[in-house]
Amino acid sequence: MQNPPRPLSHRMPASVWVLGGVSLLMDMASEMVHSLLPLFMVGALGASVVTVGWIEGLAESTALIVKVFSGVWSDRIGRRKGITLAGYALAAVSKPLFAIAQSSGVVLGARLLDRVGKGIRGAPRDALIADIAPAAIRGAAFGLRQSLDTVGALLGPLIAAGLMLAWHNDFRAVFWVAVIPGTLSVLLLFGGVREAPTSRAQNAARVQPIRRESLRRLGTSYWWVVGIGAAFTLARFSEAFLVLRAQQQGVPMALVPLVMVVMSAFYAASAYPFGKLSDRISHAGLLSLGLLVMIAADLVLGLKGGVPAVIVGVALWGVHMGMTQGLLATMVADTAPADLRGTAYGFFNLLSGVAMLVASVLAGLLWEHAGAGWTFGAGAVFCVIALAGVALGRGRLGEARSGRGR
């Protein structure tokens, strides 16, 4: 006897799978470059570490600003795919520039182009997934894309390390190889993704997102999710500190990059299962559990437990990411009106990014003046504060779930 077919509301749309594949390919290309870029700049181009820091800071700040405007524009025109495609295309165009760079100025230009591309595509892509995926499996859809994205982040450094060994540390040759998956991601997006259809009435009722009456429609529940997302980010500073802790705890220099591979592996393995789980259980409960996992990671990493403690702590960090990142994206979709989702993701990403900058600066100051243990201890304290925020907002988060599918 054959099983009855799954209802359409529980089938994962093909376009969501394609968007996951697009993210996988582009993240693979980006991490092949980014995992080697600091060494390339300092060793091959003679740049200072301060220069590297400025370039990274300018690049990330640019991405934060662009995210808001691209999300707003996708709401204004009522279309997501074209803007998303433009963002991925800019990132793909940046890859050959790294291979031909002869100065830090060219690297800065390439990084800015790459981050502008990321900023352009981020909010419209998330809004596109929210538009395409049925409300009943929205958490699974975001978890799937995040999982495939993280597989790319895992494969990129591994491929780069293998090619560096095979080609005797030829940075430029590896950067040229990165052009291939970057280009494939653009072609896959162009040919494989269809937008959700919009009616004539919806097109006629296009909103002006940056108006007081439009922003008011985002509502208290949405801004509560934004606040919780920022609190989560304050509790989880830059992953660069994981690499520093690994070196400090005795991981051999040549193996330090594998720390990020471990984190990405646990992130990728957990994102989709927890995304599916989020469609069935309380969002507030799953967020709280994710924060408890992060507290455990901070406590383990804060202790002087050597290499085993680093591996356990980094693995827990990855599980936390898998439990919470897709869930927060789902919650933004649940609390924002459908015609303002691009704007909603733009503001969410902006404020979370600012929180990440603040958290990383505080973590660096604590690391320098008090020690690594205090840095991870402060992360645990911020987790407790975020837990309190989730507890206070349980009612609003429940309202978000009851309003799904708008």
In short:
The protein is mainly alpha-helical. The chain has 17 helices and no strands.
CATH C-level label of the largest domain: Mainly Alpha
Return the structural class. mainly alpha
Q: Kindly, what is the distance between the CA atoms of the first and last residues, rounded to a whole number of angstroms?
A: 37 Å
Taken in chain order, the helices and strands follow as HHHHHHHHHHHHHHHHH
- Look at the structure and give the mean pLDDT: 83
- The CATH topology of the largest domain turns out to be Growth Hormone, Chain: A
CATH homologous superfamily name of the largest domain? Answer: MFS general substrate transporter like domains
Number of helices: 17
Number of strands: 0
The radius of gyration is 21 Å
Which term fits the overall shape? globular
Main sheet properties: none
Give the tally of structural domains. Answer: 2
Q: Identify low-pLDDT runs.
A: 199-205
Percent of residues in helices: over 70%
% residues in beta strands = under 5%
CATH architecture of the largest domain: Up-down Bundle
What's the layout of helices and strands?
Elements: H1 14-34, H2 37-44, H3 49-77, H4 81-100, H5 104-132, H6 138-166, H7 171-192, H8 200-204, H9 212-216, H10 219-235, H11 240-248, H12 258-278, H13 283-302, H14 306-335, H15 341-369, H16 372-392, H17 394-402
